[in-house]
Amino acid sequence: MSLETKMRDLITRLGTEFKKVYGVTGDKANLQTADKSSLVAALNELKAAVGNASGINDAAPSAGSTYSSQKIEAQISAAITALVNGAPTALDTLKELADALAADDSDIAALVTGLDNRLRVDAPQALTVGQRQQGRDNLDVYSKAEIGNVDRNFAADFDAALI
Question: Where on the tree of life does the source sit, at the highest rank (predicted)?
Answer without folding.
Answer: Bacteria
